[in-house]
Structures are given as C-alpha cells and as structure tokens.
Description:
The complex is a heterodimer.
Chain A: H1 3-14, E1 22-26, E2 29-35, H2 37-50, E3 55-64, E4 67-75, E5 81-89, E6 94-96, H3 106-116, E7 119-121, E8 151-152, E9 157-158, H4 161-167
Chain B: E1 2-3, E2 6-13, E3 25-31, E4 34-41, H1 49-54, H2 58-66, H3 73-88, H4 94-122, H5 126-147, E5 156-157, E6 160-161, H6 167-193, H7 195-201, H8 209-215, H9 220-223, H10 231-234, H11 255-278, E7 296-304, E8 307-315, E9 321-327, H12 329-333, H13 337-341, H14 349-354, H15 360-364, H16 380-393
Antiparallel strand pairs in B: 1-2, 2-3, 3-4, 5-6, 7-8, 8-9
Helix pairs in contact in B: 2-3, 3-4, 4-5, 4-11, 5-6, 6-11
Amino acid sequence: MNREEEIVSTLCTEFPFLHERISIQKAKRIFTNVLRKDEFEQVIRFVHDEMGFWRAHEVIGTDDGENIGLLYLVSGAENIILILRTSVPKTNPVVKSISDMYLSIVLHERELVDLFGVVVEELPDGPSYPLPDGWPKGNFPLRKEWNPEYLNKAAMTYEPPSEKEAKV
Amino acid sequence: MSDNGKNLVVIPIGPQHPSLDEPGCFTITLEGEKVVNAIIGVGYNHRGLEKACESRNYYQDLYIIERVCGICSHTHSTAFCMAVEELAGLTVPPRAEYIRVIVAELERLHSHLLWLGIACHEIGYDTMFMYTWRNREKVLDILAAIGGNRVNYGVNTFGGVRRDFDGTISSAILKTADALEDEIKHYLDIATTETTLMSRLVGIGRLSREDVIKFGAVGPVARAAGIMDDIRVVEPYGAYKEIEVHAVTDTRADVYGRTVVRILEMLESLNIIRYCIKNLPDGIIAVKAPRRVPAGEAIIRVEAPRGEDIHYVRANGTDMPDRVRVRAPSEANWHGMKHMLEGGYLADVPITIAAIDPCYSCTDRAVVIRSGNDTEIMDWMGLREYSINWYKKQGVDISALKL
C-alpha cells in the first residue's frame, strides 16, 4: 500500500461516508467527491489536527450551474495534495472560513467573496480582494452568467440588455 | 493618533510609492520608528485573466496565461501546458522537456538577478544593483535569441515547444553560463563578507520555520527557514524527473537567508542548464495536440522562481476551458508579510516587502476597470492603434499587419 492509499484508508476508516467518495487521481493527488458542508468541516479539521496536513494551498471556486463548487487543496510534509470538494447553492452561498486552521487561506477566501459572491462566515476583517472600490454590488465576475461586455467601465455599472431595455 | 497613551503614526506606503515596483498599499502604524501594525492591500493589478480564459480557446489562453507575469512567464505557460497535456493524454517528447527546463532555469536566473538588484537598491547599495542588472541582460539576450522576446518568450505549446536549439544557441548559453558563474560567485562572496550588506539584512523580516508553516509561505521564503519545498525535488515534473536538483535551504529565516538561498539557487540553475545542454536528447520537439480537450480536471504545480505555482484547469470537452485558476507563489507569500513587518523598523519596510520578491501581477492575475473623468480607457483596438502610431513616429509602419 503506498502512502496515498494509506491516507485514503485512514480517512475511510475515520469517516465511513467517504467510502467510494474519495479516489487517487494520480501520484500525490487525492480527490473527494462533493461533500456536504458538515462532512467537509469534519474531514478538514481531522486532516489538519490529526494527519499533519498543515498547508492550505488555495481554495478554487467553480461555477457548477445552480451551485458554486469549492475545492480546498491541503497538503503536509509528504507533499500529497488532498482536494476536498464541497458545494454551496447560488441562492444561499454560505460557507464557514477555515482561516482558524489555515491562515494562508484568507486571500483565497476573499476571492470567493468578490468573484463568486460566496458569503464566508468568520472571515477575518481586512481589505476586500481583488475587485476595486466602487465595483457594482451584486456583480460576481466568475459566475458564468456575468458578462464583461455589459460592464460600463466609465460609470462602473453593470447593464445587461434586459435592464437597458427596461430603462427605455 | 493615540492609543493608550502611545503616540502612533499611520503611514500609507503605496499604492504608488518609490520603493514599490508595482502597486500595493501597505498601511503601516508606527510607534516612533517601530512598526506596530501593518495592513496589506493588494488587488490593484487584477485584470480578469481567469474570466478571459473561459471565453477563448486553449491556444488563445496560452498567450493570456504567459502574460500572467512578465518575469515568470515561462513557468505559467509550462504549468498550463502540462495541465492541458494531462487532460488530453499527450506525451511531450524528451527533447522538448529538456528545452522547457533550460528556459525555466534561464528564467530563474534572470528573475533572481533582477531580485538581487532590487534588493540592493532598496538598501541603498546601487553599485550591486547595476552589476546584477548588467548580468541579467546577458540572460535576457539569450532568451531573446531563443524566443525572440526578452520576456514572454513563447517557447511552450501544447505537446512540446515551438523553438528548437541549434549548436549556436547551445554554445552561446554555455558561454554565458561560464561568465555568469564567476559573477554570481563574486556576489556570494560579497553577500557573505560585506558587512554593510549583512548589517542591513541579518535579522530583518524574520519568518521562522513555525511561522512559514502557520502562514503557508513558499519558495525561497520557506527554504530560507529550513523548509525544503522545491517542487523540482518534492514532485519532479518534465525533465526534472531525470535531473538531479540540489535544493538550497538555509536556517536564518530572515532577508539575509533569502538572499543567500537565491544566490546559491542561481549557481544550481547553471549546473542544471549545463547538464541539459550536454544531455539534450535528439528527436522531435512537439506532438500534435487536439483543439478540443476531453472533459476532466488537472491540478499541476511547478517551481517558479518565487516558489510553488499551481494551475487548475477544468475541461468540458470543447475547445475552451470551463475554468482556469492560477495560484501564483506571491499570493501564498503575502499572508506572512504582516508578521514580517511588525516589530521591525520603518526603514526596513521596503527591503522586507522586496524580500518575498513580490509579484503583484501574479498575485492579482486577473481589464483596467477603474476610471475617472480624466482617465482615458483603451480597449484592445485602441491599444493596437496607439501602438501603430507610436511605431510610426519611430519610423516603422506596421499598420499593414492584420490581426
């Protein structure tokens, strides 16, 4: 059994719900399927506290249609990256910050806020990132429905055709 | 400003400031000369590159990705190509893998020489700044000979590389490597014996091993604190799987340690370049890549001059990616900056910031959007017209070139 398989085995033993929901993509890459919020929170705390996964490389946001997908990349001394997936609905995109465990995640979580409109609870205070001051509220550029062509750069307003027509 | 009887002064450094090469805003609170609080503000270079990639095909994206950063452009294009190659099931020819490594190490050389010059400039040691930048020109000349550009060399493509090496280029690289080795060894000698330099760098901007773990720092910042995280060694890729790379670490965990690490890494880069040229495999330099990439996702990491560079690509079976995400090393190194600054002195703020070799463009990646009444906003065609007119004034008419 190689180290990746041992990690998968340990996790499946600790969290039976991971059976057949975690796989080794290739050497040094272990992916989980989409985990429920409570499942995700249990697993990430366990790998941080008990398995030595001390580094959070980033959190990647993806537009999955009705939901925002979140991929958390963590690793430890063995440099095996564990990718934990979770998901939040666009209608209520709330997730808890993991910055209490991983301080290095703060900028990435701020990106989720600005670019995907995810509400990250317990995110430490600080300047927003990376969109500029005066960015039109409710506009999240990395959501698929957001089209840069409708951004009025001079007025800093977002004017999709339907709204323009409504004005007329 | 008064806080519990203390006289505190708040100084904003940036977003435009003589000690910053790119825009960032550091709000420094001082008690006397001592930094008691620092707020790091980045994001001024956000260009929407990731969004742009989603509405263009992979080949167009390659040009965008190479422009994430002007210094480590090859690193980004390598990571992006590797991700697409993994998804498309392409095997890159050995000769191409070696050429990628040679260019990557030349890039590391020019990046570290650039950094060394800036670091010396920040501490008022402008003689060293001029020497190192003179040396950097030799590396840039080689890169221009290979790819036609000083930066954004355009060497990578999906399935291999676009530029082959002939004997002339190889000889020129080896000749430059020999000349640079003497110079870099001289810089190492200066770094380890010149008391002025040491007194400005030793003990400054400390980020201990424990702090690196806490704040997730990468690259020379982590290695200067004894954490060996060189991706060329811990997760070898491409030709690095066949090349012995001696990763450099230090235990001083300060700006001085980061300086020594980078100088020694340049010597190692020279060794790698010589090895690659001596053992450069024969054969083709690229295989044909499909326009449409099978659905899937890939996470690739490579060692940029500043540390770990991660690219995520999610393909949906079309010729355009569903999602591209770039986590450049600078984005990882900002988290520890507040800690590095606090407790230090105002005079050491510029060199402490410079010591992570920050790349703001890399951090922010992603169309100038901010505008005022007096600001002229240029779109792509406007920029092209401006460029054509500029060249006309220099006596070169490129207006006949079609896009």
